[in-house]
Amino acid sequence: MHFTVAIDGPAAAGKGTISRAIAREFGFAHLDTGLLYRAVGLKGGDPVQAARSLSSDDLARDGLRSLAAGEAASRVAVLSDVRAALVDFQRDFARRDGGAVLDGRDIGTVICPEAEVKLFVTASAETRARRRWLEAGEDGSYKEVLAQVRARDARDSSRADAPLLAAPDAITLDTTEWTVTYAIEAAKEIIAARLATCA
Ligand code: C5P
Questions:
Q1: I need a labelling partner for 9 at 20 to 30 A (CA). Which of 34, 50, 148, 160 fits?
Q2: From the CB of 67, is ligand 1 less than 6 Å away?
């Protein structure tokens, strides 16, 4: 069975948490596509070469989830050749047997426009910055994290190639006022309903 769930949205909106819960619930494989860009950003050297030669070791290295890696990722993610080098891997993953959930910025728009379910998970910049800041152990100032979140939103939304955008047929989940449990339940309901129509 092929069944792809595409989850897009800005940094720290809850995509990762929702994706992992969905993967567990429905037995789907999960790919956090941000890790691909983070690994390219951290590899150094020519980013296009780094993207073309990305290995499983690169994806397992320490520090991939740091704020600095997120910054580096969003800088290399503006390069069309970097994006192009990562497309096939993501598409193959999406169509694997047994179902897959991919989260990122352009999954529903560019990587898997044919995905069976497309969710756009978002929240206010203030809420997302607070989550990131708490996650990082209140390291640094909240204001700095908020500035970074806004800068990353601006870069991700304004780039020419595959900007952060909700697909026209995506369902938007605004998690600003939601608990994690509520957000997960909302996503599960949507997917269960769609799966029932494919059975
Ligand atoms: O989601 P995460 O914070 O790990 O993503 C890091 C950066 O990688 C994003 O800010 C974005 O610039 C880039 N990215 C992307 N397309 C994706 C996933 C991530 O451009 N599908």
A1: 50
A2: no
Give this prediction's pTM. 0.94
**Is the torsion defined by CA of 39, 37, 74, 12 positive or negative?**
negative
Q: Is the CB of 33 under 6 A from ligand 1?
A: yes
Q: Give yes or no for residue 197 having a pLDDT over 90.
A: yes
Count CB-CB contacts under 10 A for residue 30: 18
Does the pLDDT value for residue 136 go beyond 80? no
**Region 88-101: what's the mean pLDDT?**
97
Distances (CA, A) of 62 to 32, 66, 93, 181, 194: 16, 9, 23, 29, 37
Residue to probe by mutation, ligand 1, list 18, 33, 149, most atoms within 8 Å of CB? 33
Average pLDDT over the chain, rounded to an integer: 94
Max Cα separation, the chain? 49
How open is the CA angle 180-5-85, to the nearest 5 degrees?
115
Cβ(85)–Cβ(167) under 8 Å? Answer: no
Across 71-80, 85-94, 133-142, 154-163, least confident range: 133-142
Domain residue ranges of the chain, discontinuous segments joined by +: 4-188
